[in-house]
Amino acid sequence: MKIGMSHGAGGEVMQNLISDIILKNIKNKRVNGGVGLDDLDDGASIPLGDLEIVLSTDGHTVDPLFFPGGDIGKLSIAGTVNDIAVMGAKPLAITNGMVIREGFPADDLETIVKSMDAVCQETGVSIITGDTKVMEQGKLDEMIITTTGIGVVNKGEIKRDSSLKVGDKIILSGSVGDHGMALMSYREGFGFDTDLQSDVAPIWEIVEKALAIGGVTSMKDPTRGGLANALNEIANKSGVGLLVEEDKIPLKEPVIAVSEMLGIDPYEVANEGKVIIGVEKELADETLSAIRKTRYGAQAQIIGEVTEDNHVILETSLGGKRILEAPIADPVPRVC
């Protein structure tokens, strides 16, 4: 087997690579009983007294580096903050490693760093250490940024993506498909008239407000593989099913238009500023109200509920039902 683009695009192919090659060959996967590598959550944890230190690391290879609504700098910080946030932890700090192509414009690098700093200032996160390398012309496509996030949560209060309970309601914080469709339309230069922008943004404020209500059971950000992959992952890991109402899933008109033109399912496309939250039924409406008052949560909806079924079932706009399967891979490569 040789590694292909689909091995890094989320979905079934990437999961098989992780299981068959990576996890199989690493023996030490956790520290002091915390969340570990083989849990395949959005982050890991190290218990420390009455607290748990939460960590998550991510490599960013988005193409192009600058896209409608953001750039690789904004994406790298927001994406890592979000992975910490969905574990229920307050993001505190970021480490930043950059590998840059020889000849890369210094002005572009400065713009990217300023974008990183803007997200840090918005979320109260600090970039506390880093590393910079330069590679020869022809050996690297522009640049790669690798960030590691550090957060903290009280011991026993981590939110796992495997903790849904039958009867929980599922909240989606906003419209889906924005990032992948904006990137694809801009990257390929199809020329259709749209003001569609990426949704890349930090979701910590949404998560913080939801946690304050007290009913959150599980969280996941629908990045690679999109909504379809994230819903299937949290359902499978929790040993439950989901019934989702298609009419409740927020979709912007430009996303619908672009997806129909390209033949791409918007439910399978990466998002970079959204979160799926499982909430106890009794507190779902109050949680939704709190989320809608945040900067990025105005379009939030309760899109479904947790069932005893073994599948993610989509109740379609036409009144029928179909299984919403996890994609083989995200149809839009190099989106994050």
TrEMBL record:
Gene Ontology terms describing biological process: protein maturation
Domain of life assignment: Archaea
Alphabetical list of CDD domains matching this protein: HypE (cd02197)
Residues annotated as domain PurM-like N-terminal: 41-153
PurM-like C-terminal domain location: 165-314
SUPFAM superfamilies: PurM C-terminal domain-like (SSF56042), PurM N-terminal domain-like (SSF55326)
Family stated for the protein in its record: Belongs to the HypE family.
Family annotation (PANTHER family): CARBAMOYL DEHYDRATASE HYPE, HYDROGENASE ISOENZYMES FORMATION PROTEIN HYPE
Name of the protein described by the UniProt record: Hydrogenase expression/formation protein HypE
Organism: Methanobacterium alkalithermotolerans
